């Protein structure tokens, strides 16, 4: 059974850091890119960033709103992706989701077919 | 960034009605378009990929069509369990952008 589970959310003060994890199982993690999305309270979905597979250089790309503050990494041996969030702002308050992604992977399923349940991040003083 | 314009923003229909949501891309995205359904407090669920490919387990009353810049999601006979918010998403080019969502409820 394919599973993705986010963890690490919580309440954090503006300017501080937080690291989210996305622990996966049930599929060959190394074959998939991982994309992070977020959803602010009462708002729509926003793409945050992607980490491609090692075969595509393992490179990352980020939304303009988080570029230079957020960093995505992956540990293929453990099937985990991370979202390191630095210099957090109140506008980063959201539920954060990870999803498996075939757009920059070597897989043959639909992209974004499985998501985690989300982890809530609240940035407030 | 590719802008995705979804309409309507909200929709109320009766059970059994045929419902259509449209999504327009700001540039040609070929068929790199997904449709998601989201219920309150839950993660989005992929309904249709690549503009028209129904995902396993999704009822056949859902269908998608379109290519280029104009797309639509149709529910042929609305059921009470279809209430929620629907989003289109392009994945032709980074950043992968979403429409603003269509909130669907039952009259």
Describe the protein.
The complex is a heterodimer of chains A (125) and B (107). Chain A has 125 residues and is mainly beta. Chain A has no helices and ten strands. Chain A has strands at residues 3-7, 10-12, 18-25, 33-39, 45-51, 60-62, 70-75, 80-85, 94-101, 119-123. In chain A, the strands form two sheets. A six-stranded mixed β-sheet of chain A has the order 2-10-9-4-5-6, with no helix packed on it. Chain B has strands spanning 4-7, 10-13, 19-25, 33-38, 45-49, 53-54, 62-67, 70-75, 84-90, 102-106. Chain B is built from no helices and ten strands. With 107 residues, chain B is mainly beta. Chain B starts with a strand and ends with a strand. In chain B, a hairpin with a 2-residue loop joins strand 7 and strand 8 (70-75). A six-stranded mixed β-sheet of chain B has the order 2-10-9-4-5-6, with no helix packed on it. The chains are: A mainly beta (125), B mainly beta (107). The interface between A and B is medium-sized, with 19 and 23 residues.
């Amino acid at each position: 059974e394919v599973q993705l589970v986010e963890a690490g959310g919580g309440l954090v003060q503006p300017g501080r850091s937080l690291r989210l994890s996305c622990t996966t199982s049930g599929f060959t993690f190394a074959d998939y890119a991982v994309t992070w999305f977020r959803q602010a309270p009462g708002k729509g979905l926003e793409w945050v960033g992607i980490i491609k597979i090692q075969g595509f250089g393992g490179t990352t790309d980020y939304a303009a709103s988080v570029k230079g503050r957020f960093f995505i990494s992956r540990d293929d041996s453990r099937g985990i992706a991370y979202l390191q969030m630095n210099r957090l702002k109140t506008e980063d308050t959201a539920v954060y989701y990870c999803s498996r992604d075939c757009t920059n992977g070597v897989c043959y399923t639909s992209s974004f077919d499985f998501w985690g349940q989300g982890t809530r991040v609240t940035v407030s003083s | 960034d590719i802008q995705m314009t979804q309409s309507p923003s909200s929709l109320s229909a009766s059970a059994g009605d045929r419902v259509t949501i449209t999504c327009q891309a700001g540039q040609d995205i070929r068929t790199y378009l997904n449709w998601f359904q989201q219920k309150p407090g839950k993660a989005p669920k992929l309904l249709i990929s690549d503009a028209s490919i129904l995902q396993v387990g999704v009822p056949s009353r859902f269908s998608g069509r379109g290519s280029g810049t104009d797309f639509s999601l149709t529910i042929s006979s609305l059921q009470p369990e279809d209430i929620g918010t629907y989003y289109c998403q392009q994945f032709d080019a980074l950043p992968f952008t979403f429409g603003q969502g269509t909130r669907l409820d039952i009259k």
